[in-house]
Amino acid sequence: MPEYRNPKPTVDCIIELPGERIVLIRRANPPVGWALPGGFVDEGEPLDVAAVREVQEETGLHVKLSEQFFTYSDPRRDPRQHNISTVYIGSAEGEPQGADDAAEARAFRVDDLPKDLCFDHDTILSDYVTYKRTGQRRKL
């Protein structure tokens, strides 16, 4: 039987907190750096449920998803393998606490994000800032 090397589905979540802040995690595992909370979708799990679960596991926050933002599928977006990430926007209250495979979780103002972002999360966050300021989404 042939080996199929299909992309793996993942989710990421842009969590909006009061004060125009968003939550990032500092990854405990390679590739290390700051990233949006997220991870792999479990078999039989809907994408939105996976996003809520990953946020809870990595930040301790209970996120309320407001919209599906965009799906990022560049084969080079993750150095480990070809992953496709569906990104959600949601809101939460409280302060994040790093847990699971997040060494740390912090809220950042969108104008003061760390420079060492993993994967393509700099692109995702740039798209998000453009969307919030202009209403324009990334073009296909």
UniProtKB/TrEMBL annotation:
Q: Which Pfam families match?
A: NUDIX
Q: Which InterPro entries match?
A: Nudix_hydrolase (IPR020476), NUDIX_hydrolase-like_dom_sf (IPR015797), NUDIX_hydrolase_CS (IPR020084), NUDIX_hydrolase_dom (IPR000086)
Q: PROSITE patterns from the xrefs?
A: NUDIX, NUDIX_BOX
Please report the stretch or stretches of sequence annotated as the Nudix hydrolase domain.
Answer: 6-131
- Residues annotated as transmembrane: none
Q: Which UniProt keywords apply?
A: Hydrolase
User: Which GO MF terms does the UniProt record name?
Assistant: hydrolase activity
Describe the family membership recorded for this protein in Swiss-Prot or TrEMBL. Answer: Belongs to the Nudix hydrolase family.
UniProt name for this protein: Hydrolase, NUDIX family
